[in-house]
């Protein structure tokens, strides 16, 4: 019989509902009681005239850089609305999920970093982008300017907001008081969970493991007061589950 290392553990997933099914299923396979508690939701941004003008001149860009799967989803929707398509541009993707979303649409990937984070993507881009190149970065409303800041002295970087991350209305009373692990896939999810937690906030911060997708999110969890924190070394669903399993195994 397969070992179920998370048996008896309650694990809360804070990512948007439409993105959580796969992670919840994988946690359940490991024996966890997996609970969806979407503290944020994603919505397509309203395209203004300036952004529409950028898309209409898509052919001027040498690179299109995607830092999230949501960026792919909503950028392609906007392209469809304007009647444009990706043609000769080189494509960079921050990680396998983002790359898979592109490949499903028939778009080939030219660059994906070995470490799936924005900083590493920007570093790898700097090695590949030619001086004076034009780079387009479709991004979310809360995304950092990592690519733009890294390439500022090398290329012309244009950022457009293609989706917005917003706080979801949830009740902390949907959750049991005893929660073993809370999974955070972004810094904003840490912030929004804290706002939703109300009078349980201190209890969760003291007793519950904050399992974070990477060091930036873990730092936000630290700032927010979580005493127990871990960060995945592989910034994927599988990586964060492996990190949780290792932590739980060491506790036993």
Automatic annotation (TrEMBL):
Keywords for this protein: Lyase, Porphyrin biosynthesis
Reaction catalyzed: hydroxymethylbilane = uroporphyrinogen III + H2O
EC number: 4.2.1.75
Record bears the keyword Transmembrane: no
Domain Tetrapyrrole biosynthesis uroporphyrinogen III synthase residues, every copy: 23-242
Coiled coil: none
Cross-referenced Pfam families: HEM4
Record-given protein name: Uroporphyrinogen-III synthase
Gene3D superfamilies attached to this UniProt entry: 3.40.50.10090
Entry keyword Ion transport: no
Family classification: Belongs to the uroporphyrinogen-III synthase family.
Pathway info: Porphyrin-containing compound metabolism; protoporphyrin-IX biosynthesis; coproporphyrinogen-III from 5-aminolevulinate: step 3/4
Organism: Fictibacillus marinisediminis
Known role: Catalyzes cyclization of the linear tetrapyrrole, hydroxymethylbilane, to the macrocyclic uroporphyrinogen III.
A molecular function GO annotation: uroporphyrinogen-III synthase activity
A single GO BP: uroporphyrinogen III biosynthetic process
């Amino acid at each position: 019989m397969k070992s179920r290392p998370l048996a008896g553990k309650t694990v809360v997933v804070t990512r948007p509902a439409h993105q959580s099914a796969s992670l919840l299923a994988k946690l359940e396979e490991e024996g966890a009681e997996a609970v969806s508690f979407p503290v944020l939701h994603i919505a397509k941004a309203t395209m203004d005239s300036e952004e529409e003008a950028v898309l209409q001149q898509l052919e001027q860009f040498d690179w299109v850089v995607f830092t999230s799967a949501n960026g792919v989803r909503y950028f392609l929707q906007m392209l469809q609305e304007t009647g444009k398509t990706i043609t000769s541009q080189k494509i960079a993707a921050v990680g396998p999920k983002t790359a898979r979303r592109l490949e499903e649409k028939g778009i080939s990937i030219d660059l994906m970093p070995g470490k799936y984070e924005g900083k590493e993507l920007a570093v790898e881009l700097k090695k590949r982008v030619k001086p004076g190149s034009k780079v387009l970065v479709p991004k979310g409303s809360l995304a950092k300017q990592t690519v733009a800041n890294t390439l500022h002295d090398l290329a012309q970087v244009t950022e457009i907001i293609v989706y917005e991350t917003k706080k979801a209305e949830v009740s902390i009373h949907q959750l049991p008081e005893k929660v073993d692990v809370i999974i955070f896939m972004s810094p904003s999810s840490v912030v929004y969970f804290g706002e939703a937690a109300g009078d349980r906030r201190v209890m969760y911060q003291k007793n519950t493991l904050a399992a974070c997708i990477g060091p930036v999110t873990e730092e936000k969890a630290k700032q927010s007061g979580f005493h127990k924190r871990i960060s995945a070394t592989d910034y994927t669903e599988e990586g964060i589950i492996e990190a949780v399993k290792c932590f739980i195994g060491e506790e036993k």
